[in-house]
C-alpha cells in the first residue's frame, strides 16, 4: 500500500486571493481527491504586520464558494490543529530548541545594515550573495558581549559546508543545490517569531503533508526546507512548483494586465464552475473538453501533465466557460444568481418565465438588469433615441404602416407571437429577417437576444402596443 496522499493550501492572509493562489488551492484539492487523500488548509499568519484576520476570514469564504472544502483546517480541527500558524508558536519554540540542543542553529547578531553591506560586497565581486557566516563561530564570551550591547539576535540554521540537496520536483524534474551556495539562513526572527522557511517546513511534517503544489517562486526555498526537516528527523513532502500565470501581455498576472481578486470576480457574477474550469487548464494540459464539475476534474487531474512554461490567463476563455456555466444553472440557481438585478414585486410565475427566457443570453448579472429594463421598463429602448442607430435605420426602412399593423395586431390578439407575425406579414408582405428584425429592434433596441415569443407575455400588451406606436412615429 502506498502512503495516503495529504496535500495542503497554505496561504498568507496578507491580501485577497487572486487567480494564482486559487489555482494552487485547486490543484492541491484535485490531487488529494484524485488519490482519495486529504486536503488541509493552513493559515500562514506569522507575519503580524502583514496578516489581517479579515483576509483570513475572506479566504475561507472564497474557498467554500469555489467548493474547495478542506478535510482539516480552521473550523475543522483534528489532532494536528491548530491550523493558524499564529497559534502554533509553542511548537516552533520547541523545535527550535531541539535544533539549538543539537548545535544546528546559532544566534546571529548582524544588523540589517551589516548584512546589506556584505551583500553588496559579494555582488560587487561577482559572487551570489549569501550569509557570510560572520556569527557562525562566535564563542560564548563574544555572544555574551553582543547581548550586553542590547543586540537582539536572529537564529540561523547551519547549512553544511559541503554536499548537496537533491530532490525530484513533480514539475521541474531532478534538482540539485550545492549546500555551499545556500548560506546559513534565518529560522527565527529577532522578535522571536519563526521565519517562513521554518514554520512552513515544520508544519508540513507535523501535519503529515505528503505532496505540496505551490508557486514556482518557492522552488529555491525547497532545499532549505528539506535541510530543516532532515535536521529535525522529519520527512519532507514531495514538491511540485507550478508555473507562473501571465496576463495577455506575457507579464506576470497582476492588476495591471487584468488580474482581479476572486472576490471581485464573484461580485461581478462569475460562477465557480467557470473559474475552476479555466484554472484547471492553466499550466495543466488536459484532453478533457468542455465544462465539468470538480469531481470529474479530479479524476482527470495528473501532476504528470503540469507544464513548466508560463500559463497565459485569457479573459475571453473565462467568458466562454462563464457562458456555459450560466447556461447549465438549474432554474433555482439561475434565479438566485440574477436576483440582485431583478425588479422587485414580480409574480413568481413571471419571474420564472423571465429567468428561463434570458438565461441562454446572459453572461453576467448586469446584463440581466439590461434585459429587465427592456422587458419590464416603460421607457423605449435607449437605442431608439439615437437617430444613427441600427434600430432607427431598420425602423425607417420597415415604415410606419409596418408598426401600425403590429400595434393593431397586439390590440386584436394580445401577446401571441404567432398571431402578431402572421398579421404583420399579411399586412406588409414582409417575411423572414425583414419581418423579425424591425420587430426585435422596436421592442428591444438590439439585434440579438432571447427568443421573442416568450418575451411578449412578459412585456405585456400595453407596453407592446406603446413600443410599436412609438416606432411608427420614428419611421
Ligand atoms: N504562505 C506561503 C505563500 O502564500 C506558502 C507557500 C507554500 O505553499 O509553501 O506563499
How would you describe what is shown here?
The chain is mainly α and about 475 residues long. About 45% of the residues lie in helices and about 10% in strands. The chain has 20 helices and 11 strands. The protein has helices at about 20-35, 55-65, 90-100, 110-125, 140-150, 195-205, 220-230, 260-270, 270-280, 295-300, 315-325, 330-340, 350-360, 365-375, 390-400, 400-415, 415-430, 435-445, 455-460, 460-475; strands spanning about 5-10, 40, 105-110, 155, 165-170, 175-180, 185-190, 210-215, 240, 245, 310. The strands form 5 sheets. It has a 3-stranded antiparallel beta sheet. A two-stranded parallel sheet has the order 1-2. A hairpin with a 3-residue loop joins β5 and β6 (about 175-180). The termini are far apart. The mean pLDDT is about 95. Bound molecules: glutamic acid (GLU). The site of glutamic acid has 8 residues, from β8.
The kinds of small molecule bound in this structure are:
glutamic acid
Class computed from helices, strands and strand pairing: mainly alpha
Fraction in helix: 40-55%
Task: Please compute the radius of gyration using only Cα atoms.
Answer: 32 Å
Q: Give the overall silhouette.
A: elongated
CA-to-CA gap between the ends?
A: 79 Å
Largest sheet report: 3 strands, antiparallel
Number of strands: 11
How many alpha or pi helices?
20
Strand content: 5-15%
Taking all residues together, what is the mean pLDDT? 95
Sheet with the most strands: spatial strand order: 3-4-7
Task: Give unreliable regions as ranges.
Answer: none
Amino acid at each position: 500500500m502506498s502512503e495516503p496522499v495529504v496535500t495542503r493550501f497554505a496561504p498568507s492572509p496578507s491580501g485577497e486571493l487572486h487567480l494564482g493562489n486559487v489555482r494552487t488551492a485547486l490543484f492541491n484539492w484535485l490531487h488529494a481527491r484524485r488519490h482519495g487523500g486529504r486536503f488541509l488548509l493552513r493559515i500562514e499568519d506569522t507575519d503580524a504586520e502583514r496578516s489581517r484576520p479579515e483576509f483570513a476570514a475572506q479566504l475561507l469564504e472564497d474557498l467554500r464558494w469555489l467548493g474547495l472544502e478542506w478535510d482539516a483546517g480552521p473550523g475543522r480541527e483534528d489532532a494536528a490543529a491548530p491550523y493558524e500558524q499564529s497559534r502554533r508558536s509553542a511548537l516552533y519554540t520547541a523545535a527550535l530548541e531541539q535544533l539549538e540542543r543539537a548545535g544546528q542553529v546559532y544566534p546571529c547578531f548582524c544588523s540589517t545594515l551589516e548584512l546589506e553591506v556584505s551583500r553588496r560586497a559579494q555582488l560587487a565581486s561577482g559572487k551570489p550573495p549569501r550569509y557570510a557566516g560572520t556569527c557562525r563561530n562566535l564563542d560564548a564570551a563574544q555572544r555574551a558581549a553582543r547581548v550586553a550591547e542590547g543586540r537582539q539576535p536572529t537564529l540561523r540554521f547551519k547549512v553544511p559546508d559541503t554536499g548537496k540537496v537533491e530532490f525530484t520536483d513533480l514539475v521541474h524534474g531532478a534538482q540539485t543545490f550545492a549546500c555551499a551556495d545556500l548560506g546559513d539562513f534565518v529560522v527565527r526572527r529577532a522578535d522571536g517569531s519563526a521565519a517562513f522557511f521554518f514554520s512552513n517546513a515544520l508544519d508540513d511534517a507535523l501535519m503529515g503533508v505528503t505532496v505540496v503544489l505551490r508557486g514556482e517562486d518557492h522552488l529555491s526555498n525547497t532545499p532549505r526546507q528539506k535541510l530543516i526537516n532532515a535536521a529535525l528527523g522529519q520527512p519532507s513532502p514531495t514538491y511540485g512548483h507550478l508555473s507562473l500565470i501571465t496576463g495577455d501581455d506575457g507579464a506576470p498576472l497582476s492588476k495591471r494586465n487584468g488580474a482581479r481578486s476572486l472576490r471581485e470576480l464573484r461580485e461581478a457574477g462569475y460562477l465557480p464552475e467557470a473559474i475552476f474550469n479555466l484554472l484547471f487548464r492553466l499550466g495543466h494540459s488536459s484532453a478533457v473538453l468542455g465544462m465539468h464539475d470538480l469531481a470529474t476534474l479530479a479524476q482527470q487531474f495528473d501532476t504528470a501533465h503540469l507544464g513548466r512554461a508560463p500559463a497565459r490567463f485569457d479573459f475571453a476563455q473565462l467568458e466562454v466557460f462563464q457562458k456555459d456555466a450560466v447556461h447549465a444553472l438549474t432554474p433555482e440557481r439561475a434565479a438566485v444568481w440574477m436576483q440582485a438585478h431583478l425588479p422587485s414585486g414580480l409574480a413568481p410565475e413571471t419571474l420564472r418565465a423571465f429567468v428561463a427566457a434570458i438565461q441562454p443570453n446572459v453572461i453576467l448579472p448586469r446584463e440581466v438588469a439590461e434585459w429587465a429594463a427592456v422587458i419590464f421598463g416603460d421607457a423605449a429602448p435607449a437605442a431608439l433615441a439615437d437617430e444613427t442607430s441600427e434600430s432607427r435605420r431598420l425602423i425607417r426602412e420597415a415604415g410606419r404602416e409596418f408598426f401600425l399593423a403590429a400595434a393593431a395586431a397586439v390590440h386584436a390578439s394580445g401577446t401571441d407571437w404567432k398571431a402578431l407575425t402572421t398579421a404583420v406579414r399579411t399586412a406588409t408582405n414582409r417575411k423572414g429577417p425583414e419581418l423579425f428584425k424591425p420587430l426585435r429592434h422596436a421592442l428591444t433596441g438590439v439585434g440579438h437576444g432571447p427568443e421573442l415569443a416568450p418575451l411578449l407575455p412578459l412585456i405585456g400588451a400595453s407596453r407592446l402596443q406603446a413600443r410599436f406606436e412609438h416606432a411608427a412615429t420614428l419611421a
